[in-house]
Amino acid sequence: MIEPLEPLQAAEAELRYMKQTVAALREELERSRQDAENAVQHAVSGATAELAQLKLTIAALRDELEQAHAGRDKAVQQAHATGENELRQLKATIGALREQLETAHREKDHAMAQALAAAQDEIAQLHGTITSLRESLEMAGISREDAISAIRTQHQAELSQLQSTVRALRDRIEAATDDIPGR
User: Fold this and answer.
1) Can you give the pLDDT at residue 4?
2) Residues 128-132: what's their mean pLDDT?
3) Residue 142: other Cβ atoms inside 10 A
4) Which residues contact 40 (CB under 8 A, 6 or more apart)?
5) Stated pTM of the model
6) Would you say 162 and 57 are in contact if contact means Cβ atoms under 8 Å apart?
7) pLDDT, tens digit, for every residue of 95-119?
8) CB-based contacts of 42: which residues, under 8 Å, 6+ apart?
9) Helix axes 2-107, 109-178, angle to 10 degrees
10) N or C terminus: fewer CB in 10 A for the chain?
11) pLDDT for 39-86, tens place per residue?
């Protein structure tokens, strides 16, 4: 009867060993899962922080762009107001010259001819000034459009660079997620 107990004791010992092995493997599996979850949480929190930083950068760039637009709009309005003021002055000058011409006509024919010639010279100068001002305004408009185009190009390049960075970060997160055991 002693012999059957020995295989039974050996089987019981082996069963205890197997149970201990299963418990140790379960603990190791749980640690591995916990480590994987910690790694994922760390990667997600890092990506979230970087995304928040990128959003702040984008917001700052948008603010800067809006300020640039506001500055250009203000400059355009000032140029327009200056042009309007000069135009009013020119109209007032022309009106004054007409009054002088009419007065000179009533006084003397000869004086009228001289005043008319002087007024025509001044009108030609005023037309030249008006033409010059118009050309200056057109050049300012072209310069403004060029500046706007350059800023748009610059911001588009910056946006593309930010998008590339975001894509690269996503790829790194996906690669890190793929490297986590149990995934």
Assistant:
1) 59
2) 90
3) 10
4) 177, 180
5) 0.32
6) yes
7) 888 888 788 778 877 767 786 788 8
8) none
9) 180
10) N
11) 999 988 888 988 889 899 999 999 998 999 989 889 889 988 898 888
- Identity of the residue numbered 22: V
Question: Hey, where are the domains in the chain?
Answer: 50-178
Q: Phi, psi (5° rounding) for residue 152?
A: -60, -45
State how far the Cα of 183 lies from the Cα of 61, in Å rounded to an integer. 38
Task: Give the tokens for residue 98.
Answer: 């007409």
Neighbour count for residue 133 (Cβ, 10 Å): 15
Q: Which two tokens stand for residue 182?
A: 């149990």
| Paired tokens of 66 | 């809006």
Tell me which residue of 168, 159, 161, 165 sits closest to 61, measured CA to CA. Answer: 159
| Residue 180 backbone zone (phi > 0: left; psi -120 to 50: alpha; other: beta) | beta
Residue 1, pLDDT > 60, answer: no
User: Residue 165 is which amino acid?
Assistant: T
